[in-house]
Amino acid sequence: MKNKKMLIVIALIVVVALVAVFIPKTSQSATKNKQVKIGILQFVTHPALDAITKGAEDELKKEGFSNAKINFYNGEADQSKLQTMAGQLNSENNDVLIGVATPAVQALANATSKTPIVMGAVTDPVGANLIKNVNTPEGNITGVSDRFPFVKEIKLMKEIMPNLKTVGVLYTSSEANSKSQVEGFTKVAKENGLTVKAYAIASSNDITNTLTVASKEVQAFYVGNDNTIASAFNNVLQITNAAKIPVFPSVDTMVEQGGLAAVSINQRELGIQTGKIAAEILKGKKVSSIPVDFYDHTTPVVNTKTAKALGITIPQSVLSVATTK
Description:
Layout: H1 2-33, E1 37-42, H2 47-65, E2 69-74, H3 79-91, E3 96-100, H4 102-111, E4 117-120, E5 141-145, H5 150-160, E6 166-172, H6 176-191, E7 195-201, H7 207-214, E8 220-223, H8 227-231, H9 233-242, E9 247-248, H10 252-257, E10 261-265, H11 267-282, E11 293-294, E12 298-302, H12 304-310, H13 316-319, E13 323-324
Parallel strand pairs: 1-2, 1-3, 3-4, 4-5, 5-11, 6-7, 6-8, 8-9, 12-13
Antiparallel strand pairs: 10-12
Helix pairs in contact: 2-11, 3-4, 7-9
């Protein structure tokens, strides 16, 4: 009888040991094999934002998430669509969300305060009311900022146009990131002896009338990281080229489209950094431990065809360090 009881005790011990060994492994295996879901919300279609999205997707594959399910939505600059799409992404229970451009991130932030959100190309995350502390984000949002190096851009503008005195800044009044850039550019421009005239538009429909008037008042235009204007940049160039007024944009893709020159942040590289941060979160890192990355790796980019068409000679000092389009 005693032997029988002892055998029962031993059997129970063995069962408990087996449970302890195999159940955690099964659980870990299930977690490992669970398909990761990544939601991406892009504000509008244009080359700069497309390059960010592509860079993020490519980096996520490189980081080991090639089998992840990517739920991609594009709001095409429609605020109501952005809100609806953000809600849809939240309901899909994605493991991480990526917002490409400020309005997209704001829509995601309105949809959820729990799912981690990675910013792609948000110029002023504090001014956009997305983050209070960029060093230790307190909520569910971190990511990459494309805050622009105005000092470098203005230096480039003056080097190409030594007689430059008056610059027009075209921006969209409803975009928080654009307002922030107008303020930053104006401050630095005035410190460097330039007069700045700001021209606000409510939508891309205002571009023609606004630029027709503005082209008579300035020697050059600066266009910042403004999504509405970027999506209609070809329309901008039609008017400015006809008036022989150069446009200095903020991204390399817009120089490639026909802008004259920029101290450019490579949008694909910015997207790659966005993907890296998303991968860190998917691998278990907390949002609060990932500071906002103010991506500032810049390269001068010059469109020599545009310069020739406008009758502008690019100094050799610029060409020797610039990438030409």
